[in-house]
Amino acid sequence: MREPTVVPTTVLVAADYFQSYSVVGLLAALGVLFVAVAFGAGRLLRPVVPTPEKLMTYECGVDPVGEGWAHTQVRYYVYAFLYVIFAVDSIFLFPWATVFADPGYGATTLVEMFIFLGFLAVGLLYAYKKGVLTWT
């Protein structure tokens, strides 16, 4: 007779670990398949009648006049980057606020928060000194 095989616990833990990720992988594959089928059905069912009017670029219903090249001032991008930086950085204050309420973390969290806000203040001061924040 054959003796029963003993499977090490590490193999069982690894199998359980990867089984939980296989469900995520299966759902991701189903999502990609669903999008591919939707796009494929749309491509098969839509009418394709290209005309010069349909192929012409327009904006807000106005026919284009002149070149398609236009200069955009860089300062608008700088404002957008500054907004994104400060908006994303302000999100980090919420986890600190929740940890600050826990016992034993108050002083450390408060010091870390003021250091973080100091870095933000230095960045804002630098942008102000460079004249980025003046709207002309």
Structural account:
With 136 residues, this protein is mainly alpha-helical. Helix 4 runs antiparallel to helix 5. The protein is flat. The chain has helices at residues 9-45, 52-55, 75-91, 93-100, 106-129. It contains 5 helices and no strands. The chain is 66% helix and 0% strand.
- Uncertain segments are none
Tell me the Rg in angstroms.
29 Å
Count of DSSP-assigned helices: 5
Q: How many beta-strand elements?
A: 0
The protein's oligomeric status is single chain
Shape: flat
User: How much beta, percentage-wise?
Assistant: under 5%
Structural class comes to mainly alpha
Q: Could you give a short account of the major beta sheet?
A: none
Summarize model confidence as the mean pLDDT.
79
The first-to-last residue Cα distance is: 90 Å
Helix content: 55-70%
Order of helices and strands: HHHHH
